[in-house]
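Sync notes, pocket subgroup
Present: LS, DG
LS reminded everyone that the earlier model was apo-only. Rerun requested with pyridoxal-5'-phosphate included. Inputs:
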Amino acid sequence: MTDARVLYRSTRGNGGPEVPFEQALLRGPAPDGGLYVPVDIPALPAGWDAADSMADVARTVLPPFVGAKAADAVADALDFQVPLVPLGDDFVLELFHGPTAAFKDVGARSLARLMQQALERRGGSATILVATSGDTGSAVADAFAGLSRLQVGLLYPSGGVSRVQEDQLTARRPGVRAFAVEGTFDDCQRMVKEAFSDPALASLALSSANSINVGRLLPQTLYYLWGALQARRSLGSEDDLTMVVPSGNLGNLTAGLMAQRMGLPGVRFVAAHNRNDYFVRFLDGRAEAYGFGASVSTLSNAMDVGAPSNFERLHEDLGQQLREQVEGETVDDATTLQRMRVTYEKHGYLACPHTAVGLEAWSRVKARTAAERRGVVLATAHPAKFPESVQRATGVTPTAPAALAAFQTAPKLVERISATAEALRAALLDRPDFNA
Ligand SMILES: *Cc1c(COP(=O)(O)O)cnc(C)c1O
């Protein structure tokens, strides 16, 4: 046992067994198919707001949830800047200064360190399998590479990711194998699912790293706390803040609402969606709970989610109250490009398409909000990850940060396989030790 105090239960648990953090972490989804949520949410400790870095917030706030040693591991994982950048009267909180230049680095790096620590304590090792359409795969590969008790297999649709994304996915890393699947993203997801229930692969101890894992969710509460702290310091006041969240699978928003329930005062939320706007329609009363649809592809492709899995956490926890705490906005591709252009013209700021969906949503909400509120728009990816859209909207080619540029020339390693469970099984069993 660790010194974590909070227990976790399944969203479908009906008072079923409550498990300690490490168990929820290593399992991913609960055995009944639900998602783990904290049974209770301890209040922020006195003095938390004296923190001088996000790592500091992690060490102060996370111990009751994950244990002190695990909180230290998260603090170590978050060794990059999360700057709050003024944009007119409002702010952008840049979450993309991690190694793969997207906010998925926050959750993936934390999850990797937490799993490594738990496996060291309990003994054992695991193989993470991820189906990816882009950003998640590279963040996970980067985060887990070189950890002694973990190895990673990435499956992506061959020809279905951008060049920048493919460079990142196929960069040769210790303990990582990249599989270019001759099929679609849906094929990749199906193959991963089949592998999990394939008895021939039991010895690999397969596990997942997707956004439903509590080990990714909890660390994401930290930048809400840190962002609000920075905003209030810079304003010199306790002004009310609206956090604007470019959303897809709703993990990010779920973490924000969790930060609020820890006791972060004076914050409201805007869920900013592209045309995949099931959640916006739910908030407006135009869609039933769980009345999901198929996804459509957009310029902000990391948010192209038809059936957001974290909806279950939000709905089970907050139900109708959700409608009081969150406003939703839908932004189409044309308006996204226009917002990218206007933001560049007005402020000289280059936004990626996801961030632009947030900026547009905030400009609408702000226009109809009477009370004086400052907006904090979460910037979820570096514009250089989406050079075509940025160029199209603004005429400017964004400069890639050094870490991103390095992937272009890094040695690559990729294995091409057909889109069948048998092909994946054969490849995995052929070289079960990914470092061999
Ligand atoms: C994943 C992602 C999102 C959406 O976050 P969710 O937690 O899935 O709602 C937004 N922007 C970018 C760049 C992402 O990679």
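DG: Residues 131 and 186 are 9 Å apart (CA to CA).
LS: The two ends are 34 Å apart (CA to CA).
Action: DG to write up.
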